Amino acid sequence: QDAAQILTAFAKFKIKDDDLLFALCSGVSGADWSRQSGECVTSFLWALGTLRRAQLAKPLLPPLLERIAQLAPTLRLRHVVLAMTGLAKVSAMAEELRISKPMHQASTVISERVS
Fold first, then answer.
1. Contact 38, 82 (CB under 8 A)
2. What phi and psi values does residue 52 have, to the nearest 5 degrees?
């Protein structure tokens, strides 16, 4: 949760610090995403997309996207919007990062939530 909040603050102010981003991502690389809240997961994805630095967090993206897909039916509207925005921004790198399958799955579930 702390890493997501720090990363979100950096994204809001467009502060790009690859060393800090790498350290934050390394620090949460062993996180059990199944225990993380919608706020944490969607904020993290939104920040990665906004900073355009998803490639630094490549190992985190598949479990993060899987968690978003799991949480989609219960996300609050604010978190649905964050997830949609984050997915849109990270999707441009999905092919390069080889995360197309979890990206498609998360996008589909979030889209169903909106319709």
1. no
2. 55, 40
How far apart CA 47 and CA 27 sit, in angstroms, is: 16
Count how many residues are written for the chain.
115
Q: Is the dihedral of CA 69, 75, 77, 79 positive or negative?
A: negative
Residue 85 CA to its chain's centroid (Å): 10
Between CA 33 and CA 65 the distance in angstroms is 10
- Single pTM value for the model: 0.82
pLDDT, tens digit, 9 for 90 and up, residues 43-99:
888 888 888 776 777 778 888 899 999 999 999 999 999 899 989 888 877 778 788
**Taking CA 16 as the corner, what is the angle to CA 94 and CA 14, rounded to the nearest 5 degrees?**
90
Supply 85's token pair: 């925005």
Find the helix or strand (DSSP H, E) in which 1 lies. Answer: none
How many Cβ atoms are within 10 Å of 28's Cβ, its own excluded?
A: 20
